[in-house]
Request: fold
Amino acid sequence: MLLVIFVTFLIQKYTYSFFKIDAAAFQTKDWFYVEFMVVDLWLVTWTLLLN
Reply:
């Protein structure tokens, strides 16, 4: 699970600059919120695929 969180964080960090999103303006709570939404969506999708 920690590996998924780490990988998605790195993917987001480097793709935001590609899409011209100012990731430097993100505070800690912003990163936690975005990461929670990504991991939550990943877990829901994974659960649905397993059923």
